[in-house]
């Protein structure tokens, strides 16, 4: 799953991913992804928010860290 997350968040936005932390809990999966720039993070969110990882499932809910 980590490789899939890296592929999705680097290939579709054409940006360098600095760091990925992947977590699995009783609710599901979470990933913390850090980019080189704020603009890359904003572009990623606008491009991928609400899209599915697989056809018909695993919808992305992208939020910025607080």
TrEMBL record:
RNA-binding as UniProt keyword: yes
UniProt feature coiled coil, ranges: none
Classification via Gene3D superfamilies: 3.30.70.330
Keyword terms of this UniProt record: Membrane, Repeat, RNA-binding, Transmembrane, Transmembrane helix
TM stretches of this protein: 6-23
Gene Ontology molecular function, alphabetical: RNA binding
Domain PTBP1-like RNA recognition motif: 13-65
PANTHER family for this protein: MATRIN 3/NUCLEAR PROTEIN 220-RELATED
Descriptive protein name: PTBP1-like RNA recognition motif 2 domain-containing protein
The species this protein was found in: Arachis hypogaea (Peanut)
């Amino acid at each position: 799953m980590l490789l899939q997350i890296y592929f999705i968040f680097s290939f579709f936005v054409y940006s360098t991913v600095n760091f990925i932390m992947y977590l699995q809990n009783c609710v599901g999966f979470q990933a913390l992804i850090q980019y080189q720039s704020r603009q890359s993070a904003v572009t990623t969110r606008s491009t991928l928010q609400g899209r599915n990882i697989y056809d018909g499932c695993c919808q992305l809910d992208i939020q910025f860290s607080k």
